[in-house]
């Protein structure tokens, strides 16, 4: 890019530019020829071009129209680049995979930090159509994603992602690797959706509703936090202490609660 793009605060843009971190995340993704790679927020193309060179084709989802012409021009000699001008939260990844005849797609991207959690939840909704995901995120978010029960940062994001994926933090990236530098450390993370036989059979919406209610007021016991959904006796029948707090429960504890709630009178 002859004239680097000016990052836009409205899009939460922090362009990755330090080559050693670009190489590390591309190596972690390890794209293969023929992979259907989808990059969220390609920006100036720091990851796009090496991923495209390895896979031969790539689909990029970009909301900033000012970045698209240069990205297409630079990619023309590298491989087959398709750009979807859209808000990623409105992209149906399952339909995208089917439309291109791909069994599953591979997601990658340096996600805008201000909407990273909504993007993660959106991706999880399409986990069956996704082989893996490699994202750059605020390190604090990656810590929450991988947190274990009992941790201070264990919460709704931890539970919902771990019920759908294996979460593997990869490496930390300092602010200076981006333009402009964010005020926090970043981290790369790998998410691998669980196979069908590894996934729980509870209604995902019920699970999410229970998890959201349980963590809404972290200091409350489950019996208080889940009032209107499950009473203390029902919580105990699921093998969970109704006096416990949400952050002490494993992801599968929430599945058992959701299954019990599904069979409650009135359903």
UniProtKB/TrEMBL annotation:
Keywords for the protein's UniProt record, in alphabetical order: Cytoplasm, Methyltransferase, RNA-binding, rRNA processing, S-adenosyl-L-methionine, Transferase
Binding site for S-adenosyl-L-methionine: 14, 16, 41, 62, 87, 110
Catalytic activity: adenosine(1518)/adenosine(1519) in 16S rRNA + 4 S-adenosyl-L-methionine = N(6)-dimethyladenosine(1518)/N(6)-dimethyladenosine(1519) in 16S rRNA + 4 S-adenosyl-L-homocysteine + 4 H(+)
Enzyme class: transferase
Domain Ribosomal RNA adenine methylase transferase N-terminal span(s) in chain numbering: 21-195
Main location: cytoplasm
Pfam families: RrnaAD (PF00398)
Keyword Methyltransferase in record: yes
SMART domains registered for this protein in UniProt: rADc
GO cellular component: cytosol
EC assignment: 2.1.1.182
GO molecular function: 16S rRNA (adenine(1518)-N(6)/adenine(1519)-N(6))-dimethyltransferase activity; RNA binding
Compartmental location: Cytoplasm
Similarity remark: Belongs to the class I-like SAM-binding methyltransferase superfamily. rRNA adenine N(6)-methyltransferase family. RsmA subfamily.
Role this protein plays: Specifically dimethylates two adjacent adenosines (A1518 and A1519) in the loop of a conserved hairpin near the 3'-end of 16S rRNA in the 30S particle. May play a critical role in biogenesis of 30S subunits.
Name listed for the protein in its UniProt record: Ribosomal RNA small subunit methyltransferase A
Organism phylogeny: Bacteria, Pseudomonadati, Pseudomonadota, Gammaproteobacteria, Lysobacterales
């Amino acid at each position: 890019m002859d004239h680097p793009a000016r990052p836009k605060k409205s899009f939460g843009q922090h362009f990755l530019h330090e080559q050693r971190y670009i190489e590390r995340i591309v190596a972690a993704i390890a794209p293969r020829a023929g992979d259907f790679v989808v990059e969220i927020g390609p920006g100036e193309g720091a990851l796009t071009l090496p991923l495209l060179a390895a896979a031969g084709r790539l689909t990029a989802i970009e909301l900033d129209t000012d970045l698209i012409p240069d990205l297409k021009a630079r990619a023309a000699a590298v491989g087959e680049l398709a750009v979807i001008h859209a808000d990623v939260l409105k992209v149906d990844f399952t339909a995208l995979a089917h439309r291109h005849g791909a069994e599953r797609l591979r997601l990658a991207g340096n996600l805008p930090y201000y909407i990273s959690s909504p993007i993660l939840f959106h991706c999880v909704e399409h986990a069956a159509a996704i082989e893996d995901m490699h994202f750059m995120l605020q390190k604090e978010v990656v810590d929450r994603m991988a947190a274990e029960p009992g941790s201070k940062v264990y919460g709704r994001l931890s539970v919902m992602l771990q019920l759908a994926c294996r979460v593997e933090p990869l490496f930390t990236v300092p602010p200076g690797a981006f333009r402009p530098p964010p005020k926090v450390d970043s981290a790369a993370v790998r998410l691998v959706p669980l196979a069908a036989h590894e996934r729980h059979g509870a209604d995902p919406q019920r699970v999410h509703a229970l998890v959201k209610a349980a963590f809404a007021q972290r200091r409350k016991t489950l019996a208080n936090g889940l009032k209107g959904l499950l009473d203390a006796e029902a919580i105990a029948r699921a093998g969970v202490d109704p006096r416990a707090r949400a952050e002490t429960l494993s992801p599968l504890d929430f599945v058992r609660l959701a299954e019990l709630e599904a069979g409650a009178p009135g359903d």
